[in-house]
Design brief:
With about 220 residues, this protein is α/β, with parallel strands linked by helices. Helix content is about 35%, strand content about 20%. Bound molecules: S-adenosylmethionine (SAM).
Length: about 220
């Protein structure tokens, strides 16, 4: 576990097999509030970089009309997702082993995907992770399908607020390939993959949700 994640409230804390982070416990309800307006009953949501599983377990319990499909490339995280989801119904799948930087990662996803969701993943992955995420999402989503990104982002090169600026510096100090991603790059790379930036939603604590749609 990195110092940056430990200091940011993103470091998983153990409660038996069910890991959690203070950040996920705080932001799960505001994120779900946005998703409820965008994802309809009967649709399927693929989550990329599910981490501990705190989000997907909460979403599956609170919005059971939707089918939730978690994933993470880290085996310890997938074990935690499974533990969180063990007493939930059939509207949540076992976690998939997906790494969006892997070639043709989308081929590991069978069945319908109406929306793709990724929470706090892009800034702890190298910059090419978004191109991989966007390219795969464009292949999985139907026309009009949603790619929703949550996290802290840069806008015209600038971080919003001193907290995000410090967080960005901490991430880059930890790993030169990490750091907050810029909205302009996401919009350009999304467009190149066939996903148009539709809306930017302000979220608590200097975070945003970026909503892209498959053309
Ligand atoms: C900071 S954690 C966030 C976890 C969770 N979404 C949350 O907000 O609590 C980032 C997660 O992204 C995953 N991740 C990192 N690089 C990835 C990649 N290339 N493809 C998919 N997931 C990745 C990590 O394994 C980790 O679980």
């Amino acid at each position: 576990m990195t110092t940056a994640r430990r200091n940011s409230g993103m470091a998983p804390v153990s409660a038996g097999e069910r890991l959690h982070t203070p950040a996920a416990l705080n932001n799960r309800e505001p994120i779900l509030r946005v998703l409820r307006r965008l994802v309809e009953a009967g649709q399927s949501v693929l989550e990329i970089g599910s981490g501990t599983g705190v989000h997907v377990a909460y979403f599956a319990r609170e919005y059971p009309e939707v089918h939730w499909r978690p994933s993470d490339p880290d085996g310890a995280m997938r074990a935690s997702v499974s533990a969180w989801c063990s007493d939930l119904g059939k509207n949540v799948d076992p976690p998939l082993d997906l790494d969006v930087r892997a070639v043709a990662w989308w081929q590991g996803v069978a069945g319908p995907v109406d929306a793709v969701l990724s929470i706090n993943m892009l800034h702890v992955a190298p910059p090419d992770a978004f191109a991989g995420l966007a390219g795969g999402s464009a292949r999985l989503l139907p026309p009009g399908g949603l790619l929703a990104l949550y996290g802290p982002f840069r806008f015209n090169g600038q971080c919003c607020g001193t907290g995000n600026k410090r967080f960005d510096a901490m991430l880059r100090g930890q790993n030169a390939a990490w750091g907050l991603r810029d909205l302009n790059d996401i919009a350009a790379q999304g467009a190149a993959a066939g996903l148009g930036l539709e809306r930017v939603v302000d979220m608590p604590a200097g975070n945003h949700m970026l909503l892209l749609r498959r053309r």
